[in-house]
Amino acid sequence: xxxxxxxxxxxxxxxxxxxxxxxxxxxxxxxxxxxxxxxxxxxxxxxxxxxxxxxxxxxxxxxxxxxxxxxxxxxxxxxxxxxxxxxxxxxxxxxxxxxxxxxxxxxxxxxxxxxxxxxxxxxxxxxxxxxxxxxxxxxxxxxxxxxxxxxxxxxxxxxxxxxxxxxxxxxxxxxxxxxxxxxxxxxxxxxxxxxxxxxxxxxxxxxxxxxxxxxxxxxxxxxxxxxxxxxxxxxxxxxxxxxxxxxxxxxxxxxxxxxxx
Length: 261
Description:
Strand content: 15-25%
Strand order of the largest sheet: 1-7-4-9-3-2-10
Number of strands: 10
Number of domains: 1
CATH superfamily: q2cbj1_9rhob like domain
Largest sheet: 7 strands, antiparallel
CATH topology: Jelly Rolls
CATH architecture: Sandwich
Structural class: alpha+beta
CATH class: Mainly Beta
Distance between the termini: 41 Å
């Protein structure tokens, strides 16, 4: 069996894969350093505004689309990566629209409840690129293996997978490594016990034929925005309950999931 066949089978079975590819170039290193430096500068200069964003309480914010993220994407998309992608998915990378963003986890924060990145029908591919090392100290993403491609309500996940599924994995990454995961795999952010921002680039791929009205604003400079929770009173209340009254939040999600289609 060829290496590419093994990668395809692994991804389809487990819902994720860490590619046997590591980005190494002076240009990549320079961009990584600039993204880290500029993100930290923006965070410090705009801290009062950032405190009001949805996601600040949990410590999970979004790195908004910018030109530097596009440059990273172009470096990644060499001949080797394009071939590996086609071998796994049977489609060209050019068949997809790409949303350029990143996930930021604040120091001493970051714990999330398990969730997916959208309904099953959206069929997105999530691709992460590490611009610095990520280990157990600075918020690796935790996934529940083989929970993808199943139409599963939260109550089903909680009672059938959360307690029974022992195949949990922390996605530790070295700088330049690439992880691809199915958007429907159940996952959560973990706590960032370091003193630094944890920054992980996130490229969201959607087939062009399934997403006819794709648009995104590309900022010239790096900016930080809201993430899972939005910046409204209702969402702030929901986020607070998810942190300080976690059992109540889980109970709420279980009950409401019974009535969702």
